[in-house]
Amino acid sequence: MAEKINPVEVLVREAKDVYRKQFKGEPDVAVFAPGRVNLIGEHTDYNDGFVMPMALPLVTVIVGKKAAGEESTVYTTSDFKEKQVTFAMPNQNALIRAIPRDGPKWSLYIKGVIAKYLGGLPPAFTAVVHSNVPLGGGLSSSASLEVATYIFLDALTGDTSVSLTEKALACQKAEHEYAEMPCGIMDQFISVMGRQGHALLIDCRSLTSTLIPVADENVVFLVINSNVKHELTGSEYPTRRKQCEEAALILKKASLRDANLEDIQYLQSINTDEEIVRRARHVITEIQRTVEAAEMLKQMNYHKFGLLMTKSHLSLKEDYNVSCPELDELVGLALEVDGVLGSRMTGGGFGGCTVSLVYTHVVDKVIGHIKKNYKGNATFYICKPGPGASQI
Ligand code: GAF
User: Is 95 a residue whose pLDDT tops 60?
Assistant: First the structure.
Protein backbone atom coordinates (compact mmCIF):
# COMPACT_ATOMS: atom_id res chain seq x y z
CA MET A 1 0.00 0.00 0.00
CA ALA A 2 3.03 2.24 0.34
CA GLU A 3 4.68 3.58 -2.82
CA LYS A 4 7.22 1.28 -4.43
CA ILE A 5 10.56 3.08 -4.44
CA ASN A 6 12.67 2.13 -7.46
CA PRO A 7 16.38 1.63 -6.73
CA VAL A 8 18.86 4.14 -8.17
CA GLU A 9 19.97 1.65 -10.84
CA VAL A 10 16.45 1.55 -12.28
CA LEU A 11 16.25 5.34 -12.41
CA VAL A 12 19.65 5.48 -14.11
CA ARG A 13 18.54 2.94 -16.71
CA GLU A 14 15.37 4.96 -17.40
CA ALA A 15 17.35 8.22 -17.59
CA LYS A 16 19.80 6.66 -20.07
CA ASP A 17 16.92 5.50 -22.29
CA VAL A 18 15.53 9.03 -22.35
CA TYR A 19 19.00 10.45 -23.08
CA ARG A 20 19.42 8.16 -26.09
CA LYS A 21 16.09 9.36 -27.49
CA GLN A 22 16.71 13.06 -26.80
CA PHE A 23 20.38 13.34 -27.69
CA LYS A 24 20.99 10.37 -30.01
CA GLY A 25 24.11 9.20 -28.19
CA GLU A 26 25.35 7.32 -25.18
CA PRO A 27 25.78 9.19 -21.85
CA ASP A 28 29.06 8.43 -20.12
CA VAL A 29 28.39 9.96 -16.70
CA ALA A 30 25.67 9.04 -14.19
CA VAL A 31 25.23 10.54 -10.71
CA PHE A 32 22.55 10.69 -8.07
CA ALA A 33 21.75 12.83 -5.02
CA PRO A 34 19.07 12.01 -2.44
CA GLY A 35 16.16 13.98 -1.06
CA ARG A 36 15.84 14.02 2.71
CA VAL A 37 13.35 13.71 5.50
CA ASN A 38 14.06 15.76 8.58
CA LEU A 39 13.34 13.70 11.69
CA ILE A 40 13.52 16.64 14.09
CA GLY A 41 15.08 20.13 14.28
CA GLU A 42 12.81 22.23 12.08
CA HIS A 43 13.56 25.86 11.26
CA THR A 44 16.64 25.65 13.44
CA ASP A 45 19.35 25.46 10.75
CA TYR A 46 19.29 29.19 9.95
CA ASN A 47 19.46 29.87 13.70
CA ASP A 48 22.85 28.11 13.99
CA GLY A 49 21.05 25.22 15.73
CA PHE A 50 20.88 21.44 15.40
CA VAL A 51 18.91 19.41 12.85
CA MET A 52 18.60 15.65 12.40
CA PRO A 53 17.64 14.56 8.89
CA MET A 54 18.29 11.32 7.05
CA ALA A 55 18.92 10.85 3.32
CA LEU A 56 16.01 9.20 1.51
CA PRO A 57 16.04 6.38 -1.01
CA LEU A 58 14.19 8.93 -3.21
CA VAL A 59 16.79 10.51 -5.47
CA THR A 60 17.53 12.81 -8.40
CA VAL A 61 19.62 11.19 -11.11
CA ILE A 62 21.55 13.04 -13.83
CA VAL A 63 23.08 11.26 -16.82
CA GLY A 64 24.97 12.96 -19.62
CA LYS A 65 28.28 13.79 -21.22
CA LYS A 66 30.50 16.64 -22.35
CA ALA A 67 29.37 18.50 -25.48
CA ALA A 68 31.30 20.42 -28.11
CA GLY A 69 30.89 24.21 -28.16
CA GLU A 70 29.83 26.54 -25.37
CA GLU A 71 26.18 25.62 -24.88
CA SER A 72 24.68 23.04 -22.54
CA THR A 73 21.30 21.40 -23.02
CA VAL A 74 19.36 19.76 -20.21
CA TYR A 75 16.16 17.76 -20.51
CA THR A 76 13.99 16.92 -17.50
CA THR A 77 11.61 13.96 -17.30
CA SER A 78 9.52 15.78 -14.67
CA ASP A 79 6.14 17.04 -15.63
CA PHE A 80 7.00 20.67 -16.46
CA LYS A 81 5.70 22.74 -19.33
CA GLU A 82 9.19 23.61 -20.55
CA LYS A 83 11.11 20.34 -20.42
CA GLN A 84 14.32 21.31 -22.17
CA VAL A 85 16.67 24.25 -21.78
CA THR A 86 19.77 25.33 -23.70
CA PHE A 87 22.06 27.97 -22.27
CA ALA A 88 25.57 29.37 -22.73
CA MET A 89 28.17 28.13 -20.27
CA PRO A 90 30.47 30.58 -18.53
CA ASN A 91 33.61 30.93 -20.63
CA GLN A 92 37.30 31.32 -19.80
CA ASN A 93 37.24 35.01 -20.63
CA ALA A 94 34.24 35.91 -18.48
CA LEU A 95 35.26 38.04 -15.51
CA ILE A 96 32.33 36.92 -13.44
CA ARG A 97 31.12 33.39 -13.77
CA ALA A 98 27.44 34.31 -14.01
CA ILE A 99 24.68 32.68 -16.02
CA PRO A 100 21.51 34.69 -16.65
CA ARG A 101 18.74 33.86 -14.20
CA ASP A 102 16.15 33.08 -16.83
CA GLY A 103 14.23 30.08 -18.12
CA PRO A 104 11.97 27.69 -16.20
CA LYS A 105 12.37 27.57 -12.41
CA TRP A 106 13.79 24.02 -12.38
CA SER A 107 16.64 25.13 -14.62
CA LEU A 108 17.68 27.87 -12.16
CA TYR A 109 18.87 25.29 -9.64
CA ILE A 110 21.17 23.84 -12.30
CA LYS A 111 22.38 27.21 -13.57
CA GLY A 112 22.95 28.39 -10.00
CA VAL A 113 25.19 25.41 -9.23
CA ILE A 114 27.16 25.90 -12.46
CA ALA A 115 27.70 29.54 -11.45
CA LYS A 116 28.79 28.59 -7.91
CA TYR A 117 30.80 25.48 -8.83
CA LEU A 118 34.20 25.45 -7.10
CA GLY A 119 36.06 22.80 -9.07
CA GLY A 120 37.19 24.92 -12.05
CA LEU A 121 35.42 25.94 -15.23
CA PRO A 122 32.86 23.26 -16.15
CA PRO A 123 32.64 22.19 -19.81
CA ALA A 124 29.46 22.33 -21.90
CA PHE A 125 27.31 19.21 -21.64
CA THR A 126 24.08 17.49 -22.56
CA ALA A 127 22.13 15.86 -19.71
CA VAL A 128 18.89 14.29 -18.61
CA VAL A 129 17.48 14.90 -15.13
CA HIS A 130 15.26 12.16 -13.76
CA SER A 131 13.90 12.19 -10.20
CA ASN A 132 11.48 10.34 -7.96
CA VAL A 133 11.66 12.92 -5.14
CA PRO A 134 8.13 14.38 -5.05
CA LEU A 135 8.32 17.99 -6.26
CA GLY A 136 7.42 20.60 -3.66
CA GLY A 137 6.69 17.83 -1.14
CA GLY A 138 9.05 19.11 1.56
CA LEU A 139 11.55 16.30 0.87
CA SER A 140 14.18 18.57 -0.71
CA SER A 141 13.65 17.93 -4.37
CA SER A 142 15.50 21.18 -5.08
CA ALA A 143 18.54 20.41 -2.91
CA SER A 144 18.80 16.97 -4.49
CA LEU A 145 18.81 18.61 -7.95
CA GLU A 146 21.48 21.09 -6.86
CA VAL A 147 23.70 18.44 -5.31
CA ALA A 148 23.23 16.06 -8.25
CA THR A 149 24.28 18.91 -10.55
CA TYR A 150 27.39 19.57 -8.44
CA ILE A 151 28.42 15.90 -8.49
CA PHE A 152 27.71 15.73 -12.23
CA LEU A 153 30.05 18.71 -12.82
CA ASP A 154 32.70 17.01 -10.64
CA ALA A 155 32.44 13.95 -12.86
CA LEU A 156 32.90 16.12 -15.97
CA THR A 157 35.85 18.14 -14.65
CA GLY A 158 37.45 15.30 -12.65
CA ASP A 159 37.90 17.72 -9.73
CA THR A 160 38.53 16.19 -6.31
CA SER A 161 39.86 19.27 -4.50
CA VAL A 162 36.68 20.52 -2.84
CA SER A 163 35.44 19.28 0.56
CA LEU A 164 31.94 17.91 1.01
CA THR A 165 31.03 20.85 3.26
CA GLU A 166 32.17 23.36 0.64
CA LYS A 167 30.07 21.57 -1.97
CA ALA A 168 27.00 21.81 0.25
CA LEU A 169 27.68 25.52 0.84
CA ALA A 170 28.08 26.16 -2.90
CA CYS A 171 24.70 24.51 -3.55
CA GLN A 172 23.10 26.58 -0.76
CA LYS A 173 24.49 29.76 -2.40
CA ALA A 174 22.98 28.63 -5.70
CA GLU A 175 19.59 28.32 -4.04
CA HIS A 176 19.90 31.74 -2.35
CA GLU A 177 20.97 33.58 -5.47
CA TYR A 178 19.24 31.72 -8.30
CA ALA A 179 16.02 30.46 -6.67
CA GLU A 180 15.93 33.41 -4.24
CA MET A 181 15.09 31.11 -1.34
CA PRO A 182 17.09 32.08 1.78
CA CYS A 183 17.31 28.46 2.98
CA GLY A 184 19.54 27.11 5.73
CA ILE A 185 22.21 24.48 5.11
CA MET A 186 20.35 21.32 6.19
CA ASP A 187 19.04 20.05 2.85
CA GLN A 188 22.23 20.40 0.83
CA PHE A 189 24.36 19.10 3.72
CA ILE A 190 22.42 15.86 4.20
CA SER A 191 22.16 15.26 0.45
CA VAL A 192 25.97 15.41 0.25
CA MET A 193 26.78 13.68 3.55
CA GLY A 194 23.98 11.12 4.04
CA ARG A 195 24.99 7.58 4.95
CA GLN A 196 23.05 4.36 4.43
CA GLY A 197 21.37 3.19 7.65
CA HIS A 198 22.06 6.44 9.51
CA ALA A 199 20.43 9.68 10.55
CA LEU A 200 22.75 12.68 10.82
CA LEU A 201 22.83 15.13 13.72
CA ILE A 202 24.13 18.34 12.16
CA ASP A 203 25.48 21.28 14.12
CA CYS A 204 24.60 24.09 11.73
CA ARG A 205 26.97 26.49 13.47
CA SER A 206 30.20 24.49 13.27
CA LEU A 207 29.02 22.49 10.23
CA THR A 208 30.12 19.29 11.91
CA SER A 209 27.92 16.21 12.13
CA THR A 210 27.45 12.92 13.94
CA LEU A 211 26.10 9.76 12.31
CA ILE A 212 23.47 7.92 14.33
CA PRO A 213 22.57 4.36 13.30
CA VAL A 214 18.90 3.69 12.50
CA ALA A 215 19.11 -0.01 11.94
CA ASP A 216 16.41 -1.52 14.15
CA GLU A 217 14.04 -3.67 12.06
CA ASN A 218 11.28 -3.19 14.64
CA VAL A 219 10.67 0.44 13.75
CA VAL A 220 10.32 2.41 10.51
CA PHE A 221 9.91 6.02 9.51
CA LEU A 222 6.71 6.45 7.56
CA VAL A 223 6.68 9.53 5.34
CA ILE A 224 3.23 10.68 4.25
CA ASN A 225 2.78 13.24 1.51
CA SER A 226 -0.33 15.37 2.08
CA ASN A 227 -0.13 16.27 -1.61
CA VAL A 228 -1.02 19.85 -0.79
CA LYS A 229 1.23 22.86 -1.15
CA HIS A 230 -0.04 26.18 0.14
CA GLU A 231 1.63 29.03 -1.64
CA LEU A 232 2.77 30.60 1.62
CA THR A 233 6.18 28.94 1.86
CA GLY A 234 7.87 31.42 -0.46
CA SER A 235 6.81 34.50 1.46
CA GLU A 236 6.57 33.15 5.01
CA TYR A 237 10.02 31.54 5.17
CA PRO A 238 12.01 34.79 4.86
CA THR A 239 9.62 36.39 7.35
CA ARG A 240 10.36 33.66 9.91
CA ARG A 241 14.08 34.15 9.38
CA LYS A 242 13.76 37.90 9.99
CA GLN A 243 11.67 37.37 13.12
CA CYS A 244 14.33 35.05 14.55
CA GLU A 245 17.05 37.59 13.76
CA GLU A 246 14.96 40.28 15.47
CA ALA A 247 14.59 38.16 18.61
CA ALA A 248 18.33 37.47 18.70
CA LEU A 249 19.06 41.17 18.23
CA ILE A 250 16.82 42.16 21.15
CA LEU A 251 18.57 39.52 23.27
CA LYS A 252 21.98 40.77 22.06
CA LYS A 253 22.90 37.22 20.98
CA ALA A 254 24.65 36.21 17.78
CA SER A 255 21.72 33.87 17.06
CA LEU A 256 18.92 32.05 18.87
CA ARG A 257 21.33 29.11 19.29
CA ASP A 258 22.82 31.15 22.14
CA ALA A 259 19.48 31.82 23.86
CA ASN A 260 17.69 29.80 26.54
CA LEU A 261 14.29 29.63 28.23
CA GLU A 262 15.13 32.49 30.61
CA ASP A 263 15.56 34.67 27.57
CA ILE A 264 11.95 33.95 26.64
CA GLN A 265 10.88 35.28 30.05
CA TYR A 266 13.05 38.33 29.46
CA LEU A 267 11.44 38.95 26.06
CA GLN A 268 8.02 38.73 27.69
CA SER A 269 9.03 41.00 30.55
CA ILE A 270 9.94 43.82 28.15
CA ASN A 271 6.68 43.38 26.23
CA THR A 272 8.26 42.08 23.02
CA ASP A 273 5.75 41.49 20.24
CA GLU A 274 3.93 38.27 21.14
CA GLU A 275 4.60 36.69 17.73
CA ILE A 276 8.35 37.26 18.04
CA VAL A 277 8.30 35.62 21.48
CA ARG A 278 6.55 32.55 20.08
CA ARG A 279 8.98 32.26 17.17
CA ALA A 280 11.92 32.41 19.57
CA ARG A 281 10.30 29.88 21.90
CA HIS A 282 9.90 27.41 19.05
CA VAL A 283 13.52 27.71 17.97
CA ILE A 284 14.98 27.55 21.49
CA THR A 285 12.89 24.53 22.53
CA GLU A 286 13.34 22.79 19.17
CA ILE A 287 17.13 22.98 19.44
CA GLN A 288 16.90 21.40 22.91
CA ARG A 289 14.51 18.71 21.64
CA THR A 290 16.83 17.86 18.77
CA VAL A 291 19.86 17.35 20.98
CA GLU A 292 17.77 15.19 23.34
CA ALA A 293 16.22 13.25 20.46
CA ALA A 294 19.68 12.41 19.09
CA GLU A 295 20.59 10.95 22.46
CA MET A 296 17.32 8.96 22.57
CA LEU A 297 17.92 7.58 19.08
CA LYS A 298 21.44 6.50 20.05
CA GLN A 299 19.94 4.71 23.06
CA MET A 300 17.18 3.24 20.85
CA ASN A 301 14.66 4.82 23.20
CA TYR A 302 11.97 5.13 20.55
CA HIS A 303 9.22 5.94 23.00
CA LYS A 304 10.93 9.17 24.12
CA PHE A 305 12.13 9.92 20.59
CA GLY A 306 8.55 9.70 19.35
CA LEU A 307 7.26 12.00 22.09
CA LEU A 308 9.84 14.60 21.12
CA MET A 309 8.72 14.37 17.48
CA THR A 310 5.12 15.03 18.46
CA LYS A 311 6.14 17.94 20.72
CA SER A 312 8.08 19.35 17.79
CA HIS A 313 4.93 19.27 15.67
CA LEU A 314 2.90 21.09 18.32
CA SER A 315 5.56 23.77 18.61
CA LEU A 316 5.68 24.22 14.81
CA LYS A 317 1.91 24.46 14.77
CA GLU A 318 1.27 26.69 17.78
CA ASP A 319 4.40 28.82 18.09
CA TYR A 320 5.96 28.87 14.64
CA ASN A 321 2.68 28.71 12.68
CA VAL A 322 4.09 26.80 9.72
CA SER A 323 1.73 23.81 9.78
CA CYS A 324 -1.60 23.64 7.95
CA PRO A 325 -4.91 21.77 8.44
CA GLU A 326 -3.85 18.85 6.19
CA LEU A 327 -0.58 18.25 8.06
CA ASP A 328 -2.36 18.53 11.43
CA GLU A 329 -4.96 16.05 10.21
CA LEU A 330 -2.29 13.54 9.10
CA VAL A 331 -0.41 13.83 12.40
CA GLY A 332 -3.65 13.47 14.39
CA LEU A 333 -4.78 10.40 12.41
CA ALA A 334 -1.38 8.70 12.70
CA LEU A 335 -1.33 9.18 16.46
CA GLU A 336 -4.74 7.49 16.74
CA VAL A 337 -3.14 4.13 15.88
CA ASP A 338 -1.55 2.08 18.65
CA GLY A 339 2.12 1.54 17.87
CA VAL A 340 2.72 4.99 16.38
CA LEU A 341 5.41 6.45 18.61
CA GLY A 342 5.46 10.00 17.28
CA SER A 343 4.47 12.12 14.32
CA ARG A 344 5.25 15.56 12.96
CA MET A 345 5.29 17.75 9.88
CA THR A 346 8.69 17.78 8.18
CA GLY A 347 10.45 20.44 6.08
CA GLY A 348 9.50 24.07 5.64
CA GLY A 349 5.75 23.53 6.20
CA PHE A 350 2.49 24.85 4.70
CA GLY A 351 1.96 21.47 3.05
CA GLY A 352 4.25 18.67 1.96
CA CYS A 353 4.91 15.71 4.21
CA THR A 354 4.68 14.36 7.73
CA VAL A 355 7.06 11.80 9.22
CA SER A 356 6.00 9.27 11.83
CA LEU A 357 7.98 6.77 13.86
CA VAL A 358 6.02 3.54 13.70
CA TYR A 359 6.47 -0.03 14.95
CA THR A 360 7.01 -2.08 11.79
CA HIS A 361 4.17 -4.48 12.58
CA VAL A 362 1.54 -1.69 12.56
CA VAL A 363 2.67 0.22 9.50
CA ASP A 364 0.02 -1.27 7.19
CA LYS A 365 -2.63 -0.52 9.78
CA VAL A 366 -1.53 3.14 9.94
CA ILE A 367 -1.63 3.45 6.16
CA GLY A 368 -5.09 1.85 6.05
CA HIS A 369 -6.39 4.13 8.80
CA ILE A 370 -5.15 7.26 7.05
CA LYS A 371 -6.36 6.17 3.60
CA LYS A 372 -9.79 5.65 5.05
CA ASN A 373 -10.01 8.86 7.04
CA TYR A 374 -7.79 11.55 5.46
CA LYS A 375 -9.92 14.02 3.55
CA GLY A 376 -7.29 14.44 0.84
CA ASN A 377 -5.29 11.99 -1.22
CA ALA A 378 -2.11 10.94 0.59
CA THR A 379 0.99 9.10 -0.67
CA PHE A 380 3.00 6.82 1.62
CA TYR A 381 6.72 6.04 1.71
CA ILE A 382 8.29 3.56 4.12
CA CYS A 383 11.80 4.88 4.41
CA LYS A 384 15.16 3.51 5.47
CA PRO A 385 18.07 5.96 5.41
CA GLY A 386 19.91 5.86 2.08
CA PRO A 387 23.41 7.00 1.05
CA GLY A 388 24.57 10.52 0.16
CA ALA A 389 25.24 11.76 -3.35
CA SER A 390 27.76 10.06 -5.58
CA GLN A 391 28.78 9.15 -9.09
CA ILE A 392 27.62 5.71 -10.21
C1 GAF B 1 13.53 24.25 4.15
C2 GAF B 1 14.92 24.89 4.11
F3 GAF B 1 15.46 24.72 2.87
C4 GAF B 1 15.84 24.28 5.17
O5 GAF B 1 17.08 24.95 5.18
C6 GAF B 1 15.19 24.34 6.55
O7 GAF B 1 15.21 25.64 7.07
C8 GAF B 1 13.76 23.78 6.49
O9 GAF B 1 12.99 24.39 5.47
C10 GAF B 1 13.03 23.98 7.81
O11 GAF B 1 13.65 23.25 8.82
O12 GAF B 1 13.63 22.90 3.80
Answer: no
